[in-house]
Design goal:
21% strand, 5-stranded mixed sheet, D-Maltodextrin-Binding Protein, domain 2, 3 domains, Double Stranded RNA Binding Domain, alpha/beta
Length: 338
């Protein structure tokens, strides 16, 4: 057994007694520190992380659309961006659909914005490298509406002057009513409504979704059914575009995505891709409710409405591209490419 002389020795200084006044002072300091921590709490994300920057065109309609997305996401701000499409020509612009989104996509790639909100019908099928379709919020009614004095399409007088900026609408209007005078109209929704009120036109055709988002849907006289006016692919839907490498933007877009709207947009865009259509193609394609199945309706015609075909298919909503392929096969068999 080791002797006590071999064990290590530790010298200790005796503790100094604490006075009551010193103890009270120490306790008060700790209480104040704990109180500040309780009031301040954890540092919120809004302090450590900047707001999500959402890019959009600068029109009233574009800002209204993007505003609904910003509100749904929360902690986001709008960044209006002027695009070359804002100066575009009626009917077409050399088939260059990207003119509506080009400057916004450049800002996205440059990191100047985090997420872009587009009218889905304006988003080109092929996206730039590094960008992806990140989400689709709940969709508005995709139908076109007539704004004017008539109570139905049959009531529109012969020779009526009708304003529209889309070849798709022109083709279908003339296919139904070759007696109409269909002429171009330029400007945003407010400008077009003012031109109608000034008597420049007897009626104009607009998207129901645009009027609804601007709070002016009551100005529509009646809606045109899909067999009268098949909507454009993506009409009524919003497309959220983000950098492929940005998980925060993808998460924000996914949080506001509606699964049904995403399926519908996927099917409609697949038809456009398979038909190799652009702004110069009078093509309409729209999903229609068919119980639990996915219904898809398509129209293709000449710009003057002299020739046209319209077909429809029903399929599995879990296979939107396959449904699109079936529709394109029927359109081609009916002579859509001739």
């Amino acid at each position: 057994m080791a002797s006590s002389d071999s064990m290590p020795r530790t010298s200790r200084r005796p503790a100094r007694p604490t006075s009551p006044r010193s103890a009270a002072r120490t306790a008060a300091t700790g209480a104040r520190r704990r109180s500040r921590q309780a009031v301040q709490g954890p540092v919120p994300d809004s302090v450590t992380r900047p707001k999500l920057r959402i890019g959009t065109r600068g029109s009233a309609l574009a800002r209204a659309q993007a505003g609904t997305v910003a509100e749904a996401i929360g902690d986001a701000e709008l960044v209006p961006i002027e695009t070359s499409g804002d100066e575009g020509q009626p009917w077409h612009d050399g088939g260059d659909k990207s003119r509506f989104v080009r400057e916004i996509e450049r800002a996205l790639l440059a990191g100047q914005i985090d997420l872009a909100v587009h009218s889905a019908k304006d988003l080109p099928i092929e996206l730039p490298d590094g960008l992806e379709l990140a989400g689709v919020p709940p969709r508005e009614l995709p139908a076109d509406v007539w704004v004017g004095s008539a109570s139905g399409f049959a009531d529109v007088p012969s020779g009526a002057r009708v304003g529209t900026s889309a070849l798709r609408r022109r083709s279908q209007l003339l296919a139904l009513r070759p007696d109409l005078e269909v002429v171009p109209i330029r400007g945003n929704v407010d400008t077009r409504l003012r031109k109608l009120a000034d008597g420049d036109y007897d009626g104009i055709v607009l998207a129901a979704a645009g009027l609804s988002r601007l709070g002016r849907i009551e100005e529509a006289a009646f809606a045109l059914g899909p067999l009268e006016m098949t909507p454009a692919a993506g009409q009524g839907a919003l497309a959220l575009e983000a950098r492929s490498s940005d998980p925060r933007a993808h998460a924000a877009a996914a949080a506001v995505t509606n699964p049904r709207a995403l399926i519908e947009l996927s099917a409609e865009r697949a038809v456009v891709r398979l038909m190799e259509a652009d702004c110069d193609t009078p093509l309409g394609v729209s999903c229609v409710r068919h119980g639990e199945e996915l219904g898809l309706l398509g129209y293709a015609g000449a710009a003057d409405g002299s020739e046209w075909v319209r077909e429809s298919v029903v399929g599995d909503p879990g296979q939107p591209v396959a449904v699109a392929e079936a529709l394109v096969a029927r359109l081609e068999a009916a002579g859509a490419r001739e």
